[in-house]
Amino acid sequence: MEYPSKLIEDAVNEVSKLPGIGKKTALRLVLHLLKRDEEQTETLAQSLTAMRTKVKYCRKCHNLSDNDLCTICASNRRDQSIICVVEDTRDVLAIENTAQYKGLYHVLGGIISPVEGIGPSDLQIDSLINRLRGAEAEQVREIILAISPTMEGDTTAFYLQKKIKPFNLKISTIARGIPIGGDLEYADEVTLGRSIISRIAYD
Fold this sequence. Notes:
Layout: H1 6-15, H2 23-35, H3 38-54, E1 56-57, E2 64-65, H4 71-74, E3 79-86, H5 89-96, E4 103-107, H6 125-133, E5 142-145, H7 151-164, E6 170-173, H8 189-197, E7 200-201
Parallel strand pairs: 3-4, 3-5, 5-6
Antiparallel strand pairs: 1-2, 6-7
């Protein structure tokens, strides 16, 4: 594809690097931005820059946050006795959208995948164990393993179960209303909400 401007071509190339966006969609978005007021485009650019430079990870659960503690960990309305372990922030958002869960979270930052060279030490597993040994230990009664039911997800859940078992906590997993091999972020809210409510003991 030939572009009327090298600047437009560069912008299209960068936008098309985003997941799910091809060159045609990227061009459409770039041309749309050109039609908008310059101030609106600058606001978009500034918000993206601020997001990239200022968003941090919650020091307790590793969810994305504007502050050292995310809004969930900082809230006194959340049930401190339950920690829901998830792969990443997208899963937190998916579960929160069900409005069925009021506990805390722990974001692993991925799942164990030998094929991709990701082992337990690459994930936030040690920090979860430290939470169970630290100040929160007396309050925590249950750990929910809300990890996508793929082969890698099951491997991760099995590893976590072995690490958590010595703490004598209730360990549960979301009910298998989520299809085997599926990802939590793509599950509909009703199914995901029921899976949280109908969680089962992890064997």
